[in-house]
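Sequence in, structure out.
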Amino acid sequence: MLFILNNCLIDKIKDDVNIIIALDLIAHSRRSGHHIVLGERKVIKHLTECEDLSELARSVYMKIYNQLPITREYLKNIYLSIEIFSGDKLEIIKTGKFKTVRLPVSYFTNLSIVCKTVLLFEDINDDTFYKIILRYYLSNHNLSNIRIDYEPRAGGGQNTHKIFSELQDSEERFCLSILDSDIKAPKLEMGNTAKSVSKINDPKKPLCDIFILNLREVENLMPTLMYKEVFESDINKEEAINFLETLDNSELQEARKYLDLKQGLTLEKIFKENLEGEFRKYWINFVSVFHSNIFEKCLKEGKCLETKSCNCSITKGFGQNISKEIEKKYNSKNDKSVSHIISDELALEWNEIGSIITDWCCCSSRIS
């Protein structure tokens, strides 16, 4: 997170011991590399000479002061900042795509708030894939000088709601929760987890926020060529890969956003849904265009004609362990460029996600 120290702290520092405590903790956070700390030269210079601060804190602010010409470049590429001032009222200021949360310095008298940002996932295994997105984003935007670090936490179902609610209500940690939309067709609502967390997300408590994917699940963010590279030696995944390749080059490619890529999709699943429901209408229309010659009889009857079990597979799934397979191929020790395998549509999603995680989880190198 980007912390900006307001000049008004200079005038109040002698009058309020809590400001001294807060500035010491902020210095400790910067020394640990948990956040970026900036300010105008005037305030940072004052802190290097302030004898009320610990010697260690003064040395950290001297390091910040010496690096100001370089680190000020961060301001161009980070769209969320926390301005720390001596007032007592929280404010939110938006200027174009930039957002500043003005927090009273009293918030920073608690050690917890200067710890790493919490990045809350529905599944902890998703962490690996989001790191791939971050490497792509930082590399493609020439931001390799920005470090990213955070405390990953797993939610899952109602547990995501519980953890987010507790963190938000405490107002003692910065937290970004990334949620699957679980939208199964264009006109359908979000899934229960996204809906419940969205309902409690309070803009008046800006230390925590949520980001809901514009697609069904994290698996829908993964490019087809990534699936192909990861499962190239698995003949059981060949049919699913061929389906995605055909879909990507068709006029129906939008359907890729709503597919269940873990379990796949069968006619039986479609026909089990409400006759007038949006899910059934959308996917019946999809199959009628994309697979009409294969499932003509079933479509005509409005039900699967298989007597025992439905074998009418629209597409097979890739299984429940996609993220683990992705990790083997694209882990941090194998920082393979993925730019060549990302479609223009997915690049938009990756850039948006990369930008928001950078805003919340940017940090500086540790000061030894």
